[in-house]
């Protein structure tokens, strides 16, 4: 019996915190890059939840969900996870199963009932175009809406097998561009505030490939600014 099977066979043997850590280590064994992404998402999701003034208990649940949101990728073939090029339609179908797989794994364990919907729905889009259930707007849990923004931002600003990392300012503009469609505009605005140190939550430290911090300013650091100080999210062409 391998470690995964043994853990699933006796889910109550560990406390919730120990189980979360053990599951994250399993993910790290499968794909270290995905586990690193999950750890960053958990840290940033907590900061964003604080900025949105969620209750402490909800922030704790969100932290667990963000750390485990990609757990289902342990069921995705390495050839798909690490493919150095665009995925085929069949491969995308496999990849899009990971929220449901994450949900299924955690559903068999004690202490994760509040985490389940956040994990399942972290790829739902605000306009209803996401997956797996096509939820929209306020029907998507706020924790899932937070994870979606953090997940996308981290994916854009880190190297992937098929492309180099995007500069932080460009990634921020992409979040703004997709506000109201893919992302909850209120969540994006809160994220941009803490990204540039204007919020009441602690500022985020974003790293470029190689671990070097990349600065981000309120004006986006370029000729076409992302103005996070206006009442509504900026519209970027």
TrEMBL record:
Record-linked Pfam families: HD_5 (PF13487)
Native source organism of the sequence: marine sediment metagenome
Region entry Disordered, spans: 207-237
Protein name according to UniProt: HD-GYP domain-containing protein
Residue ranges annotated for the HD-GYP domain, each copy included: 12-207
Taxonomic classification: unclassified sequences, metagenomes, ecological metagenomes
Residues passing through the membrane, by range: none
CDD domains membership: HDc
